[in-house]
Amino acid sequence: MLEVGFLAAHLLWKTTGSDLRDIYRMITTSAARSLGIEGYGIEEGTPADLLVFDVESVAEALHYQPVPTLVIAGGDVVAETSVETTLSL
């Protein structure tokens, strides 16, 4: 869905921080609500299905579209990605 948000931001000329947060809501909580999915969001009692990205802002997530560092399904970590950098001199 990050790709959808990235495209929407460019097609709709949504470039400010506030605009990008709106786009992010459109592809997350607003999408779930539109599809009639119950129990979504980050709240106590929800299923804990989420992706964790190593970025500092919504803008970075939409711009760089990184691979998730963690994939959590039903409260359990089901996938983890790490980056290793090696410097050879």
3D architecture notes:
The model has no long low-confidence stretch (mean pLDDT 84). Helix 1 (2-11) crosses helix 2. Strands 1-2-3 form a three-stranded antiparallel sheet, with no helix packed on it. The chain has 89 residues and is α+β, with helices and mostly antiparallel strands. It has four helices and three strands; from the N terminus they run αααβαββ. The chain is flat and about 55 Å long. The protein has a single domain (2-80), classed as Urease, subunit C, domain 1. The termini are far apart.
List the topology elements.
Elements: H1 2-11, H2 17-27, H3 29-34, E1 50-52, H4 58-64, E2 70-73, E3 76-80
Antiparallel strand pairs: 1-2, 2-3
Helix pairs in contact: 1-2
Q: Specify the biggest β-sheet.
A: 3 strands, antiparallel
Quaternary state of this entry equals single chain
Mean pLDDT over the full residue set: 84
Low-confidence stretches: none
Properties at a glance:
alpha+beta, 89 residues, 13% strand, 38% helix, 3 strands, Urease, subunit C, domain 1, flat
Characterize this entry briefly.
With 89 residues, this protein is α+β, with helices and mostly antiparallel strands.
